Amino acid sequence: MTVRHSDVVVIGAGITGLSVALHLAEAGIKPLVLEREGVAAGASGVQPGGVRQQWSTPLNCRLARESAAFFADLPSRLDSTLPLGFSQCGYAFLAHSEERLAQLADAVLIQNAAGVPSTLLSPDEAAATVTGLATDGLAGASWCGEDGYFDRPQSVVEAFAQAAWARGAELQVADVVSISPDGDGWTLTLRDGSSIVTERVVLAAGCDTAALAATAGIDLPIEREARHLFYSEPIADRILEPLVVAPERHFAAKQLADGRILASDLAATGDPDAGRAEWLGHVRRVATDLLPRLTYVSFSISVTGFYDVTPDNQPVLGSVDGLPGLYLAAGFSGHGFMLAPAVGRRIAEAVLGGVADDALEEFSYARFARGALQRELVTV
User: Fold this and answer.
1) Using one digit for the tens of pLDDT, what is the confidence trace for 96-107?
2) Does 142 lie in the same domain as 8?
3) What is the pLDDT of residues 14-40, one digit of tens each?
4) What's the domain range around 254?
5) Torsion of CA 325, 326, 329, 333, to 10 degrees
6) How many domains does the chain have?
C-alpha cells in the first residue's frame, strides 16, 4: 500500500480550501490540497460570485469587511492575469413589512459599527436607487454601494488556485474516504487504497465535510441544501442595477456584465424537474410586480447548486477539542465565497499555531454542544 507524507493537507479545492492553502503557502508552508474532481468542482463552481458586507452579526461584518478589501485588490494580490470582472453595483435588501424593516435597521447599526458604509432607505429613496422599482407595499430597504459581484466567479477560484500553486502549494486529485487520528497526526485513506499521513489536516470540503468528519467521530450539523438559479439570454440594455434581494418575496435578481439577468426563487425546494416550472413562474410573477422592467425577460437557462447549511447559518471553523491537528472550515450556508479571504487567513494562522481568534471561538464546533448559537439573518 502506497503511503505519502505531508506536513499539512487541505481537503477541498473550493475557494475556502484554496484560500487556506494560499495563506499557508505565503507563510512558507507548502500544503497538499486534495480534491476529488478538480478546482471548484463543487459549490464554488456553481454560485453567483456575490461579495457583500451587509450582515446581521458583528463578526460576519468584520470578516466581510476584511474580505472585501482583499477582493478590491484581487488581481495584484494574486498576481492574476485572468479577467475577474468585479462589479461594485451595490446590494439593495428590500423590506415589505415593518418587522423586516426593523431587522434591517438593527443590522445597519451593527454594520456601521464595523465600518460598513450601509444605510437605511425609505421607499422613495429605494426607488431612486433601484431604477424601475415598484414601491407598492414597500416599507424600506437597506443599501451598501460597496457591495457587488464577480461576473466570472469561476475565474476567481482559479486565480486563487494559480496563486497558491505559484507559492508552493500542490494539488492532488484524490477521493478521501476517511480520516483517523494516528499518533501525533492523521492518516487519510483514499479510495484507491493508498494513504496520506499528515501532522495537520483542514476539512474544507463543503457539503461533503460532514461525512468525512463522521469518520473521525465528529457529528457535524451540516446539511446539503439546493439553490436554483435562472438565467436569461443576454440583453443589450442595462435594465437592472443594482443587485436586488426581496427576502419576504423569496426573490433575488441582478444583471451580469454580459447582459444576462440572473434571478432566483429563494424558497425553491424539491426535485428540479418537478419544481422548475413552478419556481420559474414565481420568479416571473415577482419580477413583474417588483421590477416591471423585467416583465418580458425570458429565463431560458436553469442551474442548480448547493449550500452547506448549519442550524444558525454560520460556518464551523477551527480546531476540535480532543482531536489535535484537525481544523474545520465548512458550513458557510451560502456565504463561503465572500468570506473566503478572511477565513483562509484565520485558519492558516491557527494551523501555524497562531494566537486564538475570536472567529474561530464564536464559530467553533463546540458551540453546538454549548447551545451558543447566534443565527445570521441576512442570508440569500
Assistant:
1) 999 999 999 999
2) no
3) 999 999 999 999 999 999 999 998 786
4) 89-148+224-305
5) -160
6) 2
